[in-house]
Input
Amino acid sequence: MAHMPINHPLRPFYRAVSGLCGVFILAFGIMGAIASSGESFFSRESIWALWLKTNMAFSLLSILLGAILVAGYIVGGELSHRINYYGSWPLLAGGLAGIAVMRTDANIFNWSMVNVIVSMVIGTLILTAGLYDKPGSPETEDAFRHNRVVPAKP
Output
């Protein structure tokens, strides 16, 4: 996107924030999988890990998302930027969906209001990182700062 800053001075900070969010999600998923072992996959029992309610389905989904975020942090560059930007939207949408289904039988991930709040906060942090961690060449950065079109490479 043309309006995202390129090589923002706080890019390493934003990348570290998204990496820490990924580590938290991964740790939650692992601890949740351990805590919910022996229960049904979509259990609605009171299973808690890292102050969040969970079941095996949500724990495995968290392990997958956390691993993707940590891998993006490790790889860095444009891939990290895209993972952060596009990976934040499922967290934000999931938070809204969690509010909608929390007290119904459709709450297959066993969410509570704490889960919704944490999902929205982490989703916002990762979205912010995705908006400000875009890497680029010095020519692209200069063109962005001076609102010029960057010539295409041959």
